[in-house]
């Protein structure tokens, strides 16, 4: 039974004797001639050798760079040092010229293969086979040409203790020393350590290169910092947002204005998302949103954190995109030729050239929002946001935070990190304050202050934000009357009433405009369809309490019912016109209105969209009326 030795461990001298004996026997069985030099020994071509060196480059580089250190202990005149790869090929051999020549005569030179089946018993072949250090002296070598020499070989292991190569030292037998084997074995261990470090560094630089690319590819600002809050890396986008360069090594607070609690970030990472930061650097205000994420080592030690941040302006653009900040209509979309209507359009055109506050007055559905969009689109602010706010539709308690935003923790239910208000989102552009006549009294005071100072104060914040917005206000309410009745502040009315524009109701615009608008809505919905004379007569004869919106709805409904290409009176289904066919109803105007609303809501089972359509008023107006008349379902 053959002797077993431990991988990597120096065998005992008894084991070595036995293992050498077994190898000698195998060598004889291979039929290797021990007397002659083997001229047929496997040898790599110069290119083959180059390739092998290349594929073992880490091992090769580390060993070759260590050779000088070996020769501090051994003389190159007496000893050769060689590196053999895991397949037994000599990759490198060092020593004086004389010693290299002596070994070359014995086929011990770069390119030769030194497996047991090539050369029989040798320190290299035994070390390769048993993956343990070996020392052979004189006649221990199977081939006669090895007699007179002492050789010590040690295995070099890589990842997972896989054999990478063999390090070997050889010289005259007269220099035999048992310590040489220990020395070469510990040299092999230090080579393994060096290789591990080198590979780790290579991996790290690949990883760092990869990380750099990922950092740069990200569309947001990215910054990493260590436990001492020293910045490690920032991507270009991050430097842009912070308006600074060469931030690596600087303190986080100096560069970003952030004083963070790293332990809390590690404990509650979910709490560190979507936060806001505003700070001044070199006199410039820097405003961004950020999230912080802790970074741990493999051993779970807290190393630092990474910040993902985005400029406030971009968040604003995104929010605008989602909430629809674009004005679509232009003056070209405003259909109508009547004198009253053209006067209103001319006034609006002139208003778009200035940045004064515009007050749009008109019944519901006359096109106030369309006018506001057209004014914005014809103004210098057309590339900036257009933000409509329906002051009548937002509950009073929410109006202030909707308009001016709020800061983190301003009230229960507030979003983490706060939220910008509509004024801030509209910065640089236009705000349409729709249904301004329905604005609660205390909000009127706050709005007046904003108009006077050009600053807004987010709810819960101690500081003021400067904003630059153009205000367009609109209402169906007779504001002068509301002022007289103390329902609307006089000072605010004067502030808003700078450029008042009266948009006429449809019934005052004449048959020409009704025809034009009807044709326009047909063209938009069913091009090619026409109107019969009778239909036109009916349209002219109706009073249009819901104005253009009602006309638009009527045409759409009629087109739905019409299967041919001509609209006929039976498709129209206009409501009984209380204004023209005076029905025998009694009561005040308000009572009649209330009855109409109650009956329509009853018919539609309180479907607000359908009821508003049938009544020819906007949904917001219907909600307002429901509130006003204190109507409740059932
Ligand atoms: N001159 C016009 N040309 C084309 N379409 C118009 C015109 N005026 C109004 N409309 C259409 O009528 C509808 C109502 O317009 P808009 O919402 O601007 O009215 P409004 O006066 O703001 O109403 P409310 O006071 O109820 O909010 C819109 O669908 C719009 O397309």
Automatic annotation (TrEMBL):
It comes from the Bacteria. InterPro entries: AAA+_ATPase, AAA_lid_NorR, GAF, GAF-like_dom_sf, Homeodomain-like_sf, HTH_Fis, P-loop_NTPase, PAS-like_dom_sf. One of its GO terms (biological process) is regulation of DNA-templated transcription. Keywords: ATP-binding, DNA-binding, Nucleotide-binding, Transcription, Transcription regulation. The keyword Transcription applies. Residues 334-560 form the Sigma-54 factor interaction domain. Pfam families: AAA_lid_14, GAF, HTH_8, Sigma54_activat. GO terms for molecular function: ATP binding; sequence-specific DNA binding. The keyword Lyase does not apply. This is Transcriptional regulator containing PAS, AAA-type ATPase, and DNA-binding Fis domains. It comes from Desulfopila aestuarii DSM 18488.
């Amino acid at each position: 039974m053959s002797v077993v030795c431990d991988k990597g461990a120096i065998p005992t001298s008894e084991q070595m004797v036995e293992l050498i004996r077994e190898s000698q026997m195998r060598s004889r069985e291979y039929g290797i001639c021990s007397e002659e030099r083997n001229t047929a020994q496997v040898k790599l071509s110069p290119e083959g050798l180059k390739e092998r060196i290349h594929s073992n480059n880490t091992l090769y580089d580390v060993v070759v760079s260590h050779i000088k250190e070996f020769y501090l202990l051994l003389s190159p005149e007496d000893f050769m040092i060689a590196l053999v790869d895991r397949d037994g090929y000599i990759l490198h051999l060092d020593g004086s010229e004389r010693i290299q020549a002596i070994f070359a005569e014995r086929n011990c030179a770069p390119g030769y293969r030194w497996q047991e089946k090539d050369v029989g018993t040798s320190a290299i072949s035994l070390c390769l086979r048993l993956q343990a250090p070996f020392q052979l002296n004189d006649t221990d070598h199977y081939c006669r040409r090895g007699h007179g020499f002492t050789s010590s070989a040690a295995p070099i292991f890589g990842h997972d203790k896989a054999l990478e190569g063999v390090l070997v030292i050889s010289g005259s037998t007269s220099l035999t020393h048992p310590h040489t084997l220990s020395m070469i074995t510990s040299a092999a261990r230090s080579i393994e350590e060096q290789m591990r470090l080198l590979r780790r560094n290579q991996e790290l630089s690949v990883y760092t290169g990869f990380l750099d690319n990922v950092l740069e590819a990200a569309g947001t600002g990215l910054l990493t910092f260590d436990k001492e809050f020293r910045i490690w890396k920032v991507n270009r986008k991050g430097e842009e947002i912070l308006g600074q360069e060469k931030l690596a090594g600087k303190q986080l607070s100096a560069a970003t204005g952030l004083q963070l609690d790293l332990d809390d970030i590690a404990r509650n990472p979910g709490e560190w998302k979507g936060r806001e930061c505003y700070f001044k650097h070199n006199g410039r205000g820097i405003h961004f949103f950020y999230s912080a994420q802790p970074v741990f080592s493999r051993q779970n030690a807290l190393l630092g954190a990474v910040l993902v941040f985005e400029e406030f302006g971009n968040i604003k653009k995104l929010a605008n995109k989602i909430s629809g900040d674009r004005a679509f209509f232009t003056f070209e979309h405003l259909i109508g030729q009547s004198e009253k209507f053209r006067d209103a359009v001319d006034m609006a055109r002139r208003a778009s050239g200035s940045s004064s506050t515009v007050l749009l007055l008109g019944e519901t559905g006359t096109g106030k929002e369309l006018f506001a969009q057209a004014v914005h689109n014809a103004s210098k602010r057309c590339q900036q946001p257009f933000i409509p706010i329906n002051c009548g539709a937002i509950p009073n308690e929410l109006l202030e935070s909707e308009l001016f935003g709020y800061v983190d923790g301003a009230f229960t239910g507030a979003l983490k990190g706060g939220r910008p208000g509509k004024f801030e989102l509209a910065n640089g552009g236009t705000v349409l304050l729709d249904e301004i006549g329905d604005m609660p009294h205390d909000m009127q005071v706050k709005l007046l202050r904003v108009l006077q100072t050009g600053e807004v104060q987010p709810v819960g914040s101690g500081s003021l934000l400067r904003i630059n917005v153009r205000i367009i206000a609109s209402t169906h309410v007779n504001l002068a009357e509301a002022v007289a009745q103390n329902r609307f502040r006089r000072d605010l009315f004067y502030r808003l009433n700078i450029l008042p524009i009266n948009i006429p109701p449809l019934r005052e615009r004449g048959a020409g405009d009704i025809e034009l608008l009807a044709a326009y809505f047909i063209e938009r919905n069913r091009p090619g369809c026409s109107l019969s004379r009778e239909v036109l007569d009916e349209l002219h004869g109706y009073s249009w309490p819901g104005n253009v919106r009602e006309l638009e709805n009527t045409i759409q409904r009629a087109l739905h019912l019409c299967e041919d290409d001509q609209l006929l009176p039976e498709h129209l289904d206009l409501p009984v016109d209380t204004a023209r066919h005076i029905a025998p109803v009694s009561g005040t105007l308000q009572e009649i209105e209330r009855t109409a609303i109650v009956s329509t809501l009853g018919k539609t089972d309180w479907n607000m969209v359908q009821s508003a359509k049938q009544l020819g008023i906007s949904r917001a107006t219907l909600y307002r009326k429901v509130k006003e008349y204190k109507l409740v379902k059932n």
